[in-house]
Sequence to fold (126 residues):
Amino acid sequence: MRLHPFASGQVVGAAIIGSVTGLFFNATAVAGFSATLAVGAAVSALICRWRPGFDAAGWKLWIAGSLANPVVLAAAAFSVSEYECLLRWKTGWNCLFVEIGPFVTGLGLVPPLMGLLYRWWARRAA
Fold:
């Protein structure tokens, strides 16, 4: 079974982004971030295969690929639950890791773009 360029680009892109991000910490973070983002991208690719389909318009595929990623959804939910800290209404030790939610959400928006770029490159090369 051959993988669609969007799916493979999205998963490999997520693994690369996770590895690069993990390099700022240690080897365990490289493996953990890479695996977590790649699994989230794989789930997203499975959902995108079903709806809207891999041959859909790029903007539809990017939105679906971003919103179907469970890592992005979990990070967004964490940000919403800690909105008081994000808005600086509350401070202290409880708000120590509050900025990780928007950071991870931003990381999850890039792999669908990499999948679209690889899909475009594969179509152009064919």
